[in-house]
Amino acid sequence: MNKLEPRIDNFHRTTKSTKLWVVKIKNLNGKTLYHVVDGIERSVCTVRGREGEFIRYEHWIFPLHSQKGFKRIIRKVKNGKAFMWHFMGPGHENPESLDTIKRLPFIIEGQQIAGY
Length: 116
Prior knowledge:
The protein is mainly beta. The chain has 2 helices and 8 strands; from the N terminus they run ββββαββαββ. It has helices at residues 67-78, 95-98; strands at residues 11-28, 31-47, 54-57, 60-63, 82-86, 89-90, 106-108, 114-115.
C-alpha cells in the first residue's frame, strides 16, 4: 500500500538568502520610470525546468535580476535616459540621492512566473 506524502512543488530551496529591491516599471512621458517600492530579504530558490534564480514575494515567484542590472538602471537615470522614484523621492531630480542606494539584486513586479 502506498503511503501519503507531501506534493512536490517544483522548487529547490537553497540555504542562500539575499537582500533585494522590489521595482515597478512604468512609462512616464515616453521614458521608463523605475519605482523602487520595497527593500526585502528572501531565500533564493531555483525552479525545475527554468534557468536562473527566483524569489517568492507576496504569493508569487519572480526571476531575480542581478546587481549589475541594478547598476545599469542607476546609470540610465544618472544619464537622463530614465526616471527613478525611491524612498528619498525622485532620484532623477536629485542624482546625488542615487549614490545612497545600495546596488543589490532586484525583482520587477509584473514579471512573476507563477503564484502559490
